[in-house]
């Protein structure tokens, strides 16, 4: 393929319900979309998963826009690219900025799959057409609201419930969930809100037989997670700490985790996600796909990567209607009554982009040629 142009489009989407973590509360999303065009006229779409502020990681909406427009997109335009798997290497001399890179890299994978007339998930090497799904539920205004939300999601068929935890919203919350819902598949996500001084709390959480505790300690830490994992029974899942296949190797060798969450944006796109998945699979570490409040384009890419062999646990890939009054793809992502999503058979990401919808909610755009 030879990229002739890249268009960046920022849209603003209000959430159906606010989403609160230890970072803060999100009520609407500013999302950067990338449309890459081959000289044949074929288009591929990607989505930047960076947040509005650099709270999850160093990248954020404004930094990604500048880096993509001024640095990364010019590296691709006019280049003869043998495979989407080579796009990462074309951007290698830029350090970090993995979410910005993933925006273009995933778009190129979509483009290539469309040129080959194959579904993206098959092109990536997926082995399952149907993926298990869980939900991520943020901190609520009350325990009663949280329990109501869990009840709704369980009735919808979701196979795993993840709840955000933070100091003051942890032990008693998990206890009440267990009392109400028994032995459901349950996990807690701390988003780095704790330290080793909280070890007694984590020992107490062992009593609730959680599937895992996600990223309890610092976002850039492995050593303290290894110390914590040695002292608790509950598996630790690393998220923010794992940005590369090399990070995954180190974390596993240190004993810092027993599970890894893979996010396309965090690790740099599909090529890097595939490498992390392989590292984990070969070492017997299960993985699952995390979510970043994506629109339908990012959600479609998550569906595709979740079909790889190592993704054995239910991920955060859930229905469009949980987040958006109207998504930017059709059909919108739906979850079956058994808590699964069926990967589409159409070429590329498998969903039609609603460009009329995007045009109505776009707040800025730039064409790079």
How do the SSEs run, as a string of H and E?
Answer: EEEHHHHEEHEHEHEHEHEHHEHEEEHE
DSSP summary, beta strand count = 15
Q: Please describe the biggest sheet, giving its number of strands, its sense, and whether it closes into a barrel.
A: 7 strands, parallel
CATH architecture level-2 label of the largest domain = Alpha-Beta Barrel
Within the largest sheet, what's the order of strands?
5-6-7-8-9-10-11
Mean pLDDT: 96
Give the termini distance in whole angstroms.
15 Å
CATH fold naming of the largest domain: TIM Barrel
What would you call the structural class?
A: alpha/beta
Return the domain count: 2
Going by CATH, the homologous superfamily of the largest domain would be: Enolase-like C-terminal domain
What percent of the residues sit in helical stretches (DSSP H or I)?
A: 25-40%
Explain this structure.
The chain is α/β, with parallel strands linked by helices and 369 residues long. The protein has 2 domains: 3-117 and 352-368, 2-Layer Sandwich (Enolase-like, domain 1), CATH 3.30.390.10; 122-342, Enolase-like C-terminal domain (TIM Barrel, Alpha-Beta Barrel), CATH 3.20.20.120. Helix content is 34%, strand content 22%. It is built from 13 helices and 15 strands. It has a 7-stranded parallel beta sheet with strand order 5-6-7-8-9-10-11. Helix 1 (61-76) packs across helix 3 and helix 9 runs parallel beside helix 11. It is globular, with a radius of gyration of 20 Å. The relative contact order is 0.16.
């Amino acid at each position: 393929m030879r990229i002739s142009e890249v268009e960046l489009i920022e849209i603003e989407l209000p959430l159906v319900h606010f989403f609160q973590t230890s970072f803060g509360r999100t009520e609407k999303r500013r999302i950067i979309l990338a449309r890459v065009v081959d000289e044949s006229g074929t288009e591929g779409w990607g989505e930047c998963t960076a947040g509005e502020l650099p709270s999850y990681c160093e990248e954020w909406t404004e930094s990604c826009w500048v880096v993509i427009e001024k640095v990364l997109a010019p590296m691709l335009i006019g280049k003869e690219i043998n495979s989407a798997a080579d796009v990462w290497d074309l951007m290698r001399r830029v350090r970090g900025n993995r979410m910005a890179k993933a925006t273009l890299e995933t778009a190129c994978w979509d483009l290539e799959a469309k040129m080959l007339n194959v579904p993206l998930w098959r092109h990536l090497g997926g082995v399952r057409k149907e993926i298990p799904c869980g939900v991520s539920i943020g901190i609520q205004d009350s325990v009663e609201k949280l329990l109501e939300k869990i009840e709704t999601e369980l009735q919808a068929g979701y196979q795993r419930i993840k709840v955000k935890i933070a100091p003051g919203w942890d032990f008693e919350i998990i206890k009440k969930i267990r009392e109400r819902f028994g032995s459901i598949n349950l996990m807690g996500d701390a988003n780095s809100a704790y330290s080793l001084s909280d070890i007694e709390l984590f020992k107490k959480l062992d009593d609730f037989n959680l599937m895992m505790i996600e990223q309890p300690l610092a976002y850039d830490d492995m050593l303290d997670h290894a110390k914590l994992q040695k002292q608790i029974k509950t598996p630790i899942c690393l998220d923010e700490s794992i940005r590369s296949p090399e990070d995954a190797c180190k974390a596993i060798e240190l004993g810092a985790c027993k599970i890894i969450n893979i996010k396309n944006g965090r690790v740099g796109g599909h090529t890097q996600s595939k490498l992390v998945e392989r590292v984990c699979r070969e070492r017997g570490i299960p993985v699952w796909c995390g979510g970043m409040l994506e629109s339908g384009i990012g959600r479609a890419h998550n569906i595709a990567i979740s079909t790889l062999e190592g993704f054995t646990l239910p991920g955060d890939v859930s229905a469009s209607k949980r987040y958006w009054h109207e998504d930017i793809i059709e059909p919108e992502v739906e979850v079956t009554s058994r808590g699964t999503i069926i990967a589409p058979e159409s070429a590329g990401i498998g969903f039609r982009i609603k460009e009329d919808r995007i045009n109505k909610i776009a707040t800025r755009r730039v064409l790079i040629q």
